[in-house]
Hints:
Residues 510-588 form the AMP-binding enzyme C-terminal domain. Its EC number is 6.2.1.17. Belongs to the ATP-dependent AMP-binding enzyme family. This is Propionyl-CoA synthetase. By secondary structure, the chain is α/β, with parallel strands linked by helices. Helices cover 31% and strands 25% of the residues. It binds coenzyme A (COA) and adenosine monophosphate. Adenosine monophosphate binds at residues 239, 285, 364-368, 386-388, 390-391, 414, 477-478, 490, 493, 499, 504.
Amino acid sequence: MGYREVYEGWQADPEGFWMEAARAIDWDRFPTRGLKDDRAPFYEWFTDGLVNGCYNAVDRHVAAGRGGQAAILYDSPVTGTKQTITFADLQARTARLGGALQRAGVGVGDRVVIYMPMVPEAVVAMLACARIGAIHSVVFGGFAAHELAVRIDDATPKAILAGSCGIEPGRVVHYKPLLDAALAQARHQPEVCVIFQRPEEPGTLTPGRDHEWEAFQEGAAPADCVPVPGDHPAYILYTSGTTGQPKGVVRPTGGHLVALNWTMRNFYGVEPGEVFWAASDVGWVVGHSYICYAPLIAGNTTVLFEGKPVGTPDAGTFWRVIEEHKVAAFFTAPTAFRAVKREDPRGEMLAGHDLSRLRSIFLAGERADPDTVEWLQRITGTPVYDHWWQTETGWPIAGNPVGIEALPVKIGSPTVAMPGWDVRILGEDGTEVPPGTLGAIAVKLPLPPGTLPTLWNAEERYRKSYLDRFPGWYETGDAGMKDADGYLWIMARTDDVINVAGHRLSTGLMEEVLAGHPDVAECAVIGVADELKGQLPMGFLCLNKGCDRPHEDIVREEVARVRDEIGPVAAFRLAVVVDRLPKTRSGKILRAAMAKVADGQAYKVPATIDDPAILDEIAAAIRPLGYARA
Ligand code: COA
Ligand code: AMP
């Protein structure tokens, strides 16, 4: 069957399609039905099934006689370490940590925050939670203490599992002091913290609360896999929205197993036993779905890479890892290849590397710019596939399903909607617009298995953020169009979310931090185009009347504040002081027009603008930084 037949098969019987896919998962009790729709527009999948995520990712492969196969290939150029962990090892490690967590009182439905770098223990921690039915919430290491505290207060974890430090090129990230600072700010306190001590920088343990990783597990009885209902949350993953408060995306266990398993063979085109590598971080959805869960569920070997595309030690690292670990399919963000291209434009570092096992390269997380895609195709001779999805969806909405059929690539388009997804482009009035017309990208409800049923502790926000604007549809927050062949083109966000080096960031959150400066009366943050990172945040500051402090000092303080409160991942370095901000007559800041000015793009002066001259003032203020050039 080709793509068209599979897609039409899903359209003809969506529930039957997913019930069939569910057969590839090992259930303790097979669900009697797929979709639960009695609370529409809130939907759930496989609610009366019983299943365990860790069993499906680990134990079932051991039971099938594949215990000796590598589950995780840990490759860490930043520490000079490599480790192979078999499925049997992983079973023993998750059982041991799961048992220790149970002994400490962590049970089904309890939350566990994981704040760890890219070490095998992070994946063991996630799977150990799944094993005992605890709900994990991984926080990316590039976030600072305050952001960690916000997530701790929202998830209210019983336990926190953390690494003592992370290693960034040329810098140690002090995870343990950051955790201590977060707990000093948080209202909620966990009962226990377990610290994985790394030799590069062991942390100081707080007596009574903190335990060393090994000591915590000493003598614990190994935990069995605890079956949970299909709609039991496997994890909460916080992502950026319009406001400073992150959205806690909930991932239900059953749908997540079924959908992820389906994607490995049908979408990524890999067979059990083959090596899959997603170069991302366990702190992001790509890391959850395609470093940890999906490859393991499908019986693939996953590569856990603690390094960067460049500088660890050089721009040939990707090629070295692909060759050494015989990677069949590789997935990363376009920005990673832009970094490689910048250092090695002619692909000279590829020479001598055998990439013959590599069948496909997948890109996602941000727009795949044609230059980078063409360059990558040219130097590797390997097909490059863009695909589009979000933290909320957990797996690809649109892409090129090479496991079913490789469709013709149109560079700049992530290709077509996957089974499960009825993607349409809607106009302001909520009706579908003709092919080639720009509009809001929406998905007809119900969403397929594995997608978010709600936001943690925030059902109303879920409804407002995704369901209210177009009743009966899920609003993706992306704008774009569909062409006459049904290919999608993703153009921009419709909200104030920006994408910096494949990392999704909230300008609203940055504005909250900037506004907290005692000399700042008002501010705005926009995303400006950047050759390497796709976008960079840029701040505009209006000072309090009478403030005569040097502008450079205030800018420097604001840059430091964003780094301290949000974290280095915000990559906030650009800011200017301006007299006033362009606004509509009703007081709304015209961020989209400012972004166009900054990028030197043609723009229409909004009819509603208070005073059009302000956009010229904005342009003049940022020209010295190299922006607003025609
Ligand atoms: N823990 C702590 N700090 C981190 C971190 C982590 N896990 N990841 C990044 N940071 C820090 C970086 O050290 C950097 O700090 P600095 O300001 O002191 O230099 C800052 O956050 C910004 O990081 P980043 O945006 O990643 O920029 P970079 O210059 O370090 O690297 C790339 C640029 C393109 C090489 C890098 O972004 C990359 O590899 N991206 C891959 C894309 C990716 O993984 N996307 C995830 C979704 S698929
Ligand atoms: P995240 O939730 O961090 O995965 O970010 C999701 C957002 O990243 C999407 O809503 C898009 O704005 C953007 N994005 C992800 N993949 C692509 C892609 N292939 N092309 C364009 N934008 C993308």
